[in-house]
From TrEMBL:
PANTHER family for this protein: HYDROXYPYRUVATE ISOMERASE-RELATED (PTHR43489:SF6), ISOMERASE (PTHR43489)
One of the record's GO molecular function terms: isomerase activity
Species the sequence originates in: Amycolatopsis silviterrae
Domain named Xylose isomerase-like TIM barrel: residues: 31-267
Superkingdom of source: Bacteria
Protein name: Hydroxypyruvate isomerase family protein
Length: 274
């Protein structure tokens, strides 16, 4: 990278508070992000189950509201992430959990102004035909997209690394699902770290798929730490994304090497707010 972040593009940054500020309890992270200069935040699923209590949902929403930050992205419930689960969209037998989390996510989005949902596809399941999983995924994505459309929101589909059973590994894998669906509000989540680790050429992804990209996330590779700790020219890729027409937020989704606040030295304070 050359020079401080922000010299080569003007895309806004959103702090992902499921991976940043983990030194603090979940309900204190939005305030910490605001104190560090961020005005946009995103989360994975911020609850222990697909069906959190009304009080838990309210406490989470108030933590965002009281911090004075804007929620720009939210994952649907993805199962037990620590155990390796990566989404319920294609998980035959857990349809009720997916439906419940969709309802909760939509309610939070209406309250907090979020208009983007990450629908993690789900791992392949031993003993279940992949075509059955893919059929369920199409049904779930179509139903969720219709519900999201009702509040002017989109779904994004994310290729992931580090999970062999997860079938979407490249941008082309996700775009193939988008093509089958044919829905304008289901788009690609281009996580530059995951794509690079899985062998995608990021220049090619940007050139081909920026018009289909609904969200972008970053971490350096190897290591998944803050920009400058690995080999990716993240500023250069973001510059190319903006030039190709991407204008949304960039999710800051890395594992801090050191404390979160110290790890943010790559991003000038004045570039953290919108």
């Amino acid at each position: 990278m050359t020079g401080p972040a922000g010299e080569r593009h003007s895309l806004p940054y959103a702090a992902n508070l499921s991976i940043l500020f983990t030194e603090l309890p979940m309900l204190e992270r939005a305030q910490a992000a605001r104190a560090a200069g961020f005005t946009l935040v995103e989360y994975w699923w911020p609850f222990e189950s697909a069906d959190p209590s009304g009080d838990d949902v309210d406490r989470f929403a108030r933590s965002v509201e009281q911090a004075g930050v804007q929620l720009t992205g939210l994952n649907f419930y993805a199962g037990d992430m620590a155990a390796g689960e990566r989404g319920l969209v294609s998980w035959v037998g857990r349809e009720a959990e997916f439906a419940t989390s969709l309802t909760v996510a939509l309610g939070l989005a209406e309250r907090l102004g979020c208009r983007s949902f990450n629908a993690l596809y789900g791992n392949r399941i031993d003993g279940v035909d992949p075509s059955e999983q893919d059929g369920l995924a199409r049904d779930h994505l179509a139903a969720a997209a219709k519900a999201a459309e009702g509040i002017g929101a989109q779904l994004v589909l994310e290729p992931l690394s580090g999970t062999p059973a997860y079938p979407l590994k490249t941008a082309a894998d996700a775009v193939a699902v988008l093509d089958e669906l044919g829905l304008d509000n289901v788009r690609l989540l281009a996580d530059l770290y995951h794509l690079a680790v899985n062998g995608d050429d990021l220049d090619t992804v940007i050139a081909r798929h920026t018009p289909r990209t609904g969200h972008v996330q970053i971490a350096d590779a190897p290591g998944r730490h803050q920009p400058g700790t690995g080999e990716l020219d993240l500023e250069g890729y973001l510059e190319k994304l903006q030039a190709a027409g991407y204008a949304g937020p960039v999710g800051v989704e890395y594992k801090p090497d050191g404390s979160t606040v110290d790890s943010l030295a790559w991003l000038p304070y004045e570039r953290r707010g919108n």
